[in-house]
UniProtKB/TrEMBL annotation, chain A:
Transmembrane spans: 20-43, 82-103, 115-137, 157-174, 275-299
Membrane disposition: Multi-pass membrane protein
Highest taxon, organism lineage: Bacteria
Residue span(s) of domain ABC transmembrane type-1: 78-296
Annotated protein name in UniProt: Carbohydrate ABC transporter permease
Family annotation (SUPFAM superfamilies): MetI-like (SSF161098)
InterPro entries found in the cross-reference section: ABC_transporter_permease, MetI-like, MetI-like_sf
Family as reported in the entry's similarity comment: Belongs to the binding-protein-dependent transport system permease family.
Organism: Lentzea rhizosphaerae
Sorted UniProt keywords: Cell membrane, Membrane, Transmembrane, Transmembrane helix, Transport
Subcellular location: Cell membrane
Length: 306, 418
């Protein structure tokens, strides 16, 4: 009697608490690698703290934030961040839609093409940036060589604001378009062919079918990729850093013309050793990313069938 | 129950492996593993082999990064008390920032450093000494100045190629720019007189009695007439089209050596190793070295530090002392041209009479020991390295046509005084 009772109790204990046990690893890992760094960054952002001298740190509450909001180089970096966000995210999604539409047709060796579009994504970002920086070189770059064939002058890509942003955007778009294209392609294949058949019978062209059927039905995926791309593109660091290698890499160009907010954070943290200020930039950047991602969500949510 | 227990065991093991995967440097096979973190070219490859052969209980791994990556990584590793090499090289431009937190490093004075003190130039020793008298690094080389030039390019432009005659072209930096204008008239397309404004400017700044800081660590570059005069002179050179507009120590600058885009480059002693690495064997004999315009000056030079977080600090201190000892510095000078920070060597015949075959048998021994004796050390403030970066950016703004000399100077002075 007592024995059965014990077994039953253990069974009840098992069903009641075991599920928590199963999900614990996720929360532990999230706590250690997600939540703790986040809260710690906020805590550090309230301090005056040298990167190398944590003993000498003291709390200054919101002084770092006050300084940040009055810092023209921070706003310059935020401006560059938004410009690069626009120049990367919009082409990325448009190209990805186009590529996915092409891959969705019955072409020969399409598995090969589908594999091919993801290739840029699995390359090392450092290696890619170094190669692109050479392609966009002033004196011996391939891009300038091609432009020269058409009679266009030599462009010093790193010197200008617009030219440097374009060069960096090309790297990012090249790397991520294929990834988004595969997500779109998977969803395109789930769209019932009967919709297209009906549209064809009604005399809709391929172009109309794409914009009126395919894109509206991909709305959830477009929202998803917009948010994923935004969170990635708002914190570009490696591309602008390695686009301008050398001692001045962290300033993002001679006049900070392509210094992103993440790069400014890096400069403040690892060149000026101002850990507190750098953490404040991180917090503001995170808030800005949430806002921009929210805007992206609101825009893409409006996609609908007429 | 068994498979479940096994699974838990495996998961725990996997986690343990992942967690211990980083930063373990314990002995394998009874050997002490030492790592040494370097940047650029210290000329240590042969020396490390030699040390390992006489110390079979030690296994040395060297890792080399670019100048700025190396110092930023070191800062991160010191901040987290994890990941630093047993020995870390630190450049003059950064040593002041690191010696402000001496507790991150082994105080070499407590490990016999105070006994070795007289080896080094007094200013080199003081350069890495913290305010409270802790020694964080042993001096490696100093950056005595010279000019490296392409004999063939000068000759083709109707200028002398012989190093004494070349030196006679430019007693002062004004003369250097004047010679540049003569060169540029006959130079082929795409070949300029000097590599980039920031390189020339760094040499001029290094020769001034006062640089970016005064001795009380106040930033005085805004009022420094020597630096401003040098700035104006280099801006003039850039406007006369003498600059190849390449920033030193970048990939495009390296390409510039291979492509022969410039005829001269300011040559602190360590620059010779870079030229040899970048221009490659094809350019052997084309480059030569001669004395620098203006007076003696210093640009760069390094120290070997031992971060306290290391697990084998005693063995690391021993290796650092050995690498920076007179015999080893003499060897590095001959193999790579790094100028010793050991005054005793400046009269050593094996150094003074040394000629470098790559640089057309230039008597670099004589040239650089003379430069070292003339050298008037300039006080380096806490953020000298960052100010040097900022003035380089400022000069680039002029070279890229983004700003004129005056506006760029004003922005630079405002930036560094923030």
């Amino acid at each position: 009697m007592a024995l059965i009772d014990k077994a039953a109790r253990r069974h009840r204990w098992d069903t009641k608490f075991a599920p928590y046990g199963y999900v614990t690893p996720y929360f532990l890992i999230f706590g250690v690698f997600g939540l703790f760094p986040l809260l710690y960054t906020i805590w550090v952002s309230l301090q005056h703290r040298n990167l190398l001298d944590e003993g000498g740190a003291y709390v200054v509450w919101f002084a770092n934030y006050a300084k940040l909001l009055a810092d023209p180089y921070f706003w310059n970096a935020m401006g560059n961040t938004l410009s690069l966000w626009l120049l990367t995210t919009v082409p990325q999604i448009l190209f990805a839609l186009g590529i996915a539409a092409l891959l969705n047709r019955k072409v020969r060796t399409r598995t090969l093409f589908r594999m091919g579009v993801i290739l840029p994504n699995i390359t090392s970002v450092a290696a890619v940036t170094i190669i692109f920086a050479q392609l966009f070189g002033r004196d011996f770059g391939l891009v300038n060589w091609v432009l020269d064939l058409f009679g266009a002058g030599q462009i010093d890509w790193q010197a200008g604001t617009a030219t440097s942003h374009i060069a960096i955007a090309v790297m990012v778009v090249w790397r991520w378009t294929g990834y988004h294209a595969l997500i779109f392609l998977a969803s395109m294949q789930a769209i019932s062919p009967s919709l297209y058949e009906a549209a064809t019978l009604d005399g809709a062209s391929g172009w109309q079918q794409f914009w009126r059927i395919t894109v509206p039905l991909l709305r959830p995926q477009i929202i998803f990729t917009t948010i994923i791309a935004t969170t990635g593109n708002m914190r570009l660091l490696a591309e602008p850093l390695l686009f301008n290698p050398g001692a001045a890499a962290a300033t993002g160009g001679s006049d900070r013309q392509f210094q992103t907010a993440a790069l400014y954070l890096y400069e403040q943290g690892f060149t000026n050793y101002d850990f507190g200020y750098s953490s404040a930039i991180a917090v503001v950047l995170a808030i800005a990313t949430i806002i921009v991602a929210g805007l992206g969500y609101l825009v893409t949510k409006r996609i609908q069938t007429e | 129950m068994r498979p479940k227990a096994l699974a838990i065991g495996c998961a725990a093991l996997a986690t343990a492996v992942v967690l211990s995967g980083c930063g373990s440097d314990t002995a394998s096979g009874g050997k002490t593993k030492l790592t040494i973190g370097l940047f650029g070219n210290f000329g240590y490859a042969e020396l490390l082999k030699e040390y390992a052969s006489t110390h079979p209980d030690v296994e040395i791994t060297d890792r080399t990064a670019s100048y700025s990556d190396h110092h930023k990584n070191l800062a991160a590793h010191l901040a987290t008390n994890n990941g630093a090499a047993d020995i870390e090289a630190v450049d003059t431009g950064y040593v002041n920032q690191f010696k402000a937190t001496p507790d991150k490093f082994v105080d070499l004075n407590t490990k016999g450093g105070d006994q070795l003190k007289d080896r080094w130039l007094p200013w080199k020793w003081e350069g890495s000494l913290s305010k409270d008298g802790k020694q964080i690094g042993y001096g490696t080389d100093i950056g005595g100045l010279a000019i490296c030039y392409r004999r063939d390019l000068l000759q083709n432009a109707g200028l002398p190629a012989d190093r004494d005659q070349v030196a006679a072209l430019w007693p002062t930096w004004q003369d250097f720019m004047a010679a540049g204008k003569r060169f540029q008239e006959k130079a082929p397309d795409g070949v300029k007189w000097f590599d980039g404004g920031p390189t020339v400017l760094n040499a001029i700044v290094g020769q001034a009695p006062v640089g970016y800081y005064d001795k009380s660590d106040k930033i005085v570059v805004g009022e420094n007439k020597d630096v401003k005069a040098g700035w104006d002179l280099v801006v003039g050179g850039v406007q006369s089209g003498l600059s190849a507009k390449l920033l030193y120590s970048t990939p495009v600058w390296n390409t510039g050596f291979k492509q022969g885009q410039f005829a001269t480059v300011t040559c602190p002693a360590w620059q010779m190793a870079k030229i040899k690495d970048q221009a490659g064997p094809d350019a052997a004999g084309k480059w030569d070295v001669t004395s620098v315009p203006g007076g003696g000056g210093n640009w760069g030079g390094s120290y070997l530090t031992v971060p306290k977080q290391g697990k084998n600090v005693d063995k690391a201190v021993e290796l650092a002392a050995w690498l920076t000892a007179p015999e080893q510095q003499a060897k590095v000078f001959k193999s790579s041209g790094l100028l010793p920070s050991i005054p005793k060597l400046y009269d050593d015949p094996s150094i003074v009479d040394y000629k470098n075959p790559y640089f057309n048998d230039a008597p670099i021994g004589k040239l650089f020991t003379d430069a070292a004796k003339k050298l008037n050390p300039q006080y380096q403030g806490p953020k000298a390295g960052d100010i040097q970066t900022a003035i380089g950016n400022a000069m680039q703004r002029v070279e890229q046509g983004k700003q004129n000399g005056e506006d760029s100077w004003r922005q630079f002075v405002g930036d560094v005084q923030k």
